[in-house]
Design goal:
The chain has helices at residues 6-23, 27-39, 71-89, 155-169, 186-194, 196-205, 207-230, 280-295, 313-316, 333-340, 362-378, 398-411; strands at 47-50, 99-103, 106-107, 117-120, 130-133, 152-153, 174-178, 240-241, 244-245, 267-270, 300-303, 322-327, 345-348, 383-387. The protein has 413 residues and is α/β, with parallel strands linked by helices. It has a single domain (27-58, 104-411), classed as TIM Barrel (Alpha-Beta Barrel). The longest helix is centred in the middle third of the chain and has 24 residues, at 207-230.
Length: 413
Amino acid sequence: MNKIPIKDKEILRELANQVAEIAALPVQQETKNLWKALNGLKPVRPMVMIDQVPWHEMDVEGELVLRTEDSFCRGIEEGLRRTLYHWRYMQADMVVESYVEIPKVIRGTDFGITAVEQRAVTDPKNDVVGHYYLDQLQTEEDLRKIQMPEVVLDEEATAQLQEKAHEILDGLLEVRMQGCLPWFAAWDRIAEWRGVQNLLYDMADRPEFMHKIMSRYTDASISMLDQLEAKGLLGYGQSTVHCTGAYTDELPAPGFDPQHPRAKDIWTFGLAQIFAAVSPAMHQEFDLDYAVKWYARFGLVYYGCCDPLHAKMDIVRKIPHLRKISMSPWVDVEVGAERIGRDFVFSRKPSPALLAGGVWEPEVVKRDLEDTLEKCTRYGCPAEFILKDISTVCYQPHRLWEWAKIAAEVVGK
């Protein structure tokens, strides 16, 4: 194991000390309690989070510049610096925890096939790019490319990471070795393996073939989940799920063993964004009829992403253990609020395009948030505002800071 440079350790311990001081503030527990109330469908007020930030546009006076040399140290440094930046400029309802999570090194959770693609890059500093995926699943023989996983913990690599993290952080922040927190995004993956146009055409022209793809993907996913459970490699104690607060008194389930977490002890999430282009009947047939096998295993479920689900609530609300439903920038807010009612959390995704225009218009942001809040209040919807997928703020970080302040005022923080 490479020795940690003394300078790197000094830098990280100074940053960790700052995070520890913030984590000790009483407001952290107060915010957790607000998330628990929302997630229990008894909200005190709507909650607000900001995630998936264009960090390459955010730096102010070098606050995000990494100064460590060791690659492991740089990963920890990035997380600590971003936490401090978030807290300083755009808190919303974030919770700063008194620990750092280090993922266990778990191998074999892929399905043996990766995307073959061409990329279109507009800003070389931005990891948001365009994709053109080549079709790798054209015949039934190709289905064998989707392999059944063989999940294994790399004990030596995990132990080395744990030892290094303790050397750096002991006495300041707890080190938590986190297991796998899996989700079900079959059609995102299949789109990467085939291309969106190909899979949409084939659902109409070759439905039996598409069912075989989905069946094999589902079998591989359930096999992976079975192995993660059996080998004690699932994670637990999530603070977030799909960019939203995950704090709840309902998890873990009775009989929980931290050495062998079960799916029913944790949240999962799922989505079928490509299915924005298909009918509710096809959505049910090609996604939910399979995905239900996954969701039924977990304690709580968040469903949806960028797909507009307001017109599909009849099928979505049947998902087992469903608690939060994504309401993307493309939904009819009133229809969604009426159909969700008090039964689930209305997880509103305000449009990040409002931060990306040539002119920053904070009054438009405020009106947009107020409109959603008014409709959710009218129908009794537990609500949250989750600003995510922020590709750009035109290199004007203050836009994001102002958005956070406006949102806090709207929800009455």
